[in-house]
Write a structure and sequence with these properties.
The structure is a single chain. The chain has helices spanning 11-20, 56-72, 97-110, 116-128; strands spanning 22-25, 29-35, 43-48, 81-87. The protein has one domain (4-128): 2-Layer Sandwich (Ribosomal Protein S5, domain 2). Helix 2 packs across helix 3. 42% of the residues lie in helices and 19% in strands.
């Protein structure tokens, strides 16, 4: 799970991202992001509407899965960004981890939030060992 320091606190923070952020849309997940000059760390929120699933258990499972993928990629996030992921489909709860990871990392890379050069170096080291 992602630490408390990397989560949004209060609605006004989210409102700023909603109004001024840029959007990247994939099939089932959308990312709204903006560079935050006031913070030193990135912050993440995952929004799963009741329209996606009536069950709170399913909505929370979706949130946990997205948070975990972002937590794994946290070392590659270059600067302080505010990231809000919107989930549009209940299938995110049952889709394979690899597919969901590909969608989330792909949207982060398209937003140029992830530092690719560091990521490539680490992946090359892992394949050599």
């Amino acid at each position: 799970m992602i630490t408390q320091a990397h989560r949004f606190h209060g609605r006004n923070s989210l409102r700023f991202v909603y109004r001024r952020g840029q959007t990247i849309r994939t099939g089932v997940v959308s990312l709204k992001y903006i560079r935050n000059q006031r913070e030193e760390k990135y912050r993440v929120a995952v929004v799963v509407s009741r329209k996606v699933s009536k069950s709170a258990v399913v909505r929370n499972r979706i949130r946990r899965r997205v948070y975990e993928i972002v937590r794994k990629e946290a070392t590659y996030i270059g600067a302080a960004y505010d990231l809000v992921f919107f989930v549009y489909d209940e299938s995110v709860a049952t889709v394979s981890h690899a597919q969901l990871e590909q969608a989330i990392i792909g949207s982060l890379e398209r937003a140029k939030v992830l530092n690719r050069s560091e990521r490539a170096i680490v992946e090359n080291k892992e394949t050599l060992t």
